[in-house]
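Consider the tokenized backbone below.
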């Protein structure tokens, strides 16, 4: 009985502080991650280093992200053709998974679903481009605020992300997804 209790306690500690499993809830990260896939999230690495452009992260989105529709921006009237520049002040209790496309201080614009960071269109061979429906162009650039990260799903035409509800504060990032463990045929590093 003591061994079972110790094993359970150790498993809970690992999940609370080191590595947490996460299930992909939507198609926003396709083709990289499919609905129902399961990943492991490293909860320690961002205490030791900074998140990088291209990292796939699990985070708490701004409360405006779960208000329905395509989210609620923390700015009442963004400039025409500009993505949301500021999130709502409170964070949501749910978890999202997206890719970091712009870092604090970067200039970000979106052209046909492609991130334009500091004036350069990013090479993103992993994305599913925008279809004929959806808002995929926000050509007016803005500077990502200090200590915030601009997140986008890889399925650009089907992702509710920072374009609509703003950059995410660093303190709301839970960790980096680093390994797919389910289904078995998709096991591997991200």
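A designed sequence for it:
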């Amino acid at each position: 009985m003591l061994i079972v209790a110790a094993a359970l306690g150790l498993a809970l500690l690992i999940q609370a502080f080191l590595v947490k499993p996460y299930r992909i809830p939507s198609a926003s990260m396709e083709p990289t991650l499919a609905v129902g896939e399961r990943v492991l999230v490293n909860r320690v690495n961002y205490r030791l280093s900074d998140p990088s452009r291209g990292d796939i992260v699990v985070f708490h989105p701004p409360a405006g992200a779960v208000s329905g529709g395509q989210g609620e921006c923390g700015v009442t009237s963004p400039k025409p053709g500009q993505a949301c520049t500021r999130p709502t002040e409170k964070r949501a209790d749910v978890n999202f998974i997206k890719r970091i496309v712009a870092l604090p201080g970067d200039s970000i614009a979106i052209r046909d679903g492609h991130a334009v960071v500091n004036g350069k269109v990013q090479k993103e061979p992993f994305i599913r481009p925008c279809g004929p429906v959806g808002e995929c162009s926000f050509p007016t650039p803005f500077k990502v605020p200090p200590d915030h990260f601009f997140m986008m799903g890889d399925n650009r035409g089907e992702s509710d992300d920072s374009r609509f509800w703003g950059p995410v504060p660093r303190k709301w990032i839970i960790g980096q997804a680093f390994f797919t463990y389910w289904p078995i045929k998709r096991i591997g590093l991200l």
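Residues 4-8 have pLDDT under 50 and may be disordered.
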